[in-house]
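Forwarding the complex inputs:
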Amino acid sequence: MSQLAIQTVGLNHHFGSQAVVRDLSLQVPKGSIYGFLGPNGAGKTTTIKILLNLLQSPADTVFVFGKELNHNRIACLAKMGSLVEQPAIYGHLTGLENLRNRCILLGINKGKADEMLTLVGLKEAANKKAGKYSLGMKQRLGIALALIGDPELLLLDEPTNGLDPNGIIEIRNLMIKLVTEYGKTILVSSHLLAEIERTATHVGIINKGQLLFQGTINELHDLSKPSIKIEVDNKDLALDLLKANGSEIFSEKGGVINVAYKSKADMGQLNTLLIQNGLTVYSIGTEKKDLEHLFLDITSKN
Amino acid sequence: MRSLYISFISEFYKSRKTLAFWSAILLPLSICLIIALGFILKYDNLVKYPPQMLWFYFIYPIAGIMGSLLLPILVIYNTYAITNMEYKGDTWKSLFSLPLPKLSIYSSKFIYIIFLTFLTMFLFAIFIIMAGHGIELFRPQLKFSGFNPTEIIFRSFTKMFLSSIGIISLQFLMNLLWNDFLKPFGLGFLMTIFASIAANMNWKYAIYIPQAFPSLTVMNIMNSKKGIEFAIFDQAIAHSLICGLVVFVAGYFILLKRNIK
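Prediction (whole assembly, two chains):
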C-alpha cells in the first residue's frame, strides 16, 4: 500500500512548444498538508489539472494513492475533491442549488448540501444566486463543492484568493482540522508564502515548471543559513573589527550588521571583541531567513 | 448507465431555470395561442372551410416556418445555451474532474438537447390539438371536431423532430470546440439560410446539407398525397440520423483527445 497520496514520476507537459512542467516528481505523503509554492505562471495550476486528468499526461507518470491515473481515472477522481483557479459555479443557480447539483452528480444525499453551507459559513446566503456572491463567498462555495463528496484528497488551487483575513483564518483552521481530525490529505497551491508556512507540513517549490525543493517544512527552514544580527553605536568601527576578525559580513544597513553564524561560542567571542574595543552593543542574536526570503532565493536559482 | 442517468438529471436540474428550457415550452404555447387568436378574431373568413382544411390552415404556418427557420434556430439556440452554461461558470473543469465517465457527461448533454427538441415538438403537437378544440369553444362555427388530426399531427412532428438530429450533432460539436457565441451561432445561422434556399430551389445536393433536412421534411409532408400520406422515414430523415450518429461518435473521440482548460 502506497504511503503517498500523490506521486508523479518525471512528469512533463507542453503547451505547444512551450514546456510548462519539466521532469516533475512530486511526492505528497498521506495525511499531509502539502504546500505547493511557486510564483504566478510557475506551473502549479497546470500540475493540478494534470492530477485531475483535465490535461493529458503520459502513462505511468501520475499515481494517486498508488493507482496510475490514466488507467484508473474514475477510481482516482472518486478520492479527490478540487478547487481549481476561480470556483466553478453556476451563476444562475443559488449556492444551495449548486451544492445539490453536485450531490446529484456524486450520487449522495442532498442533505449534505446544507451541512456544507453551514461549514463554510454560507447558510444565510443559501438561497441567493451564486452569480451575485462576492469573490470571497464564491471561494467558500468552491471549497464546499470540493468537500461535499468527503474526498480523501483535496486539491486546492489558491483557496484563500479573495477571502478577508477572517475567512483566511477559517480556511486555514479548516484545513488543519480536516487533516488532523479526519485524516485527509491536502495539496494546496499558493503564492502566499506566509499562508503555507502556517499550515503546511510539507512543501514543494516550483518555478518555470521545475520542482526546486521538496521536503518537510522543517527541512525547508534548515536550508536557510542563520546569521548574527548585531546592532552597535559605531557601525564603521564594528565593521573594521569584524573584518579583521575574519567574520563573513552578509549585510550592513543603518546601525545593523549581519554576519555569518558559526556557533554560540563564536557569537560570544564577537560580542566580547566589540565590547573590549569600546563599542556599545545594543543587541546581538541569531536570525534566520523567513520562508519568503528562502522562497525568493530558491526560485531565483533557475 | 447510472452515471448517464445522473448526468442527465443534473442537466435538467441545472437548466430548469434557464431560457433554453422554458423556450421549449413557451415557444409552442405562444405560437399556438397567437394563431388561435387569429382564428378567433378572423373566424368569418374561415367558416366556409371543412374541418380538415381548418386543421391544415392552422398547422401550415407553423410547419412552414418550422422547417425553414424555426426548428434549426431553436436547435442552434438550445445547443448554445446548454453548452454555454458550462463555459459561463467555467464549470467544464469541475464536470470532468468528477468520478464520472467522460462518455456519460458528453452523452447526457447531447441527449438533453435532443430531449428539449423532442419536448418542443411534442408540445407543438399537443397545443395544436388543444388550440383547435379550444377555438371551437369560442367559435362553434369552426368545426374543428369534425376531423381527427391526432395521428397526422404526431407523425408530422415526429418527422420534424427526427430531421433535427443532424443539426443538433453538428451544433453540439461546434459548441464544444468553440467557447464563442458568434462562430457556432453565426455559422449555423448562415448554413440554415443557405440550406433553406437550396432546399426550396430543389438543388440536388440539398439532401446532403444537415440544415436542409427540416425544410426537406416539411416539403415532403406538404407535397404528399392529400398532405397526409407520407412515411416517417425518408432519405432526409435517414441522412439526419446518420449525420447525428457519425458526428456524435467523432465528437466523443475529439473530446477524449482534448485538454480541458
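Residues 224-289 of chain A form a domain with the Alpha-Beta Plaits fold (CATH 3.30.70.980).
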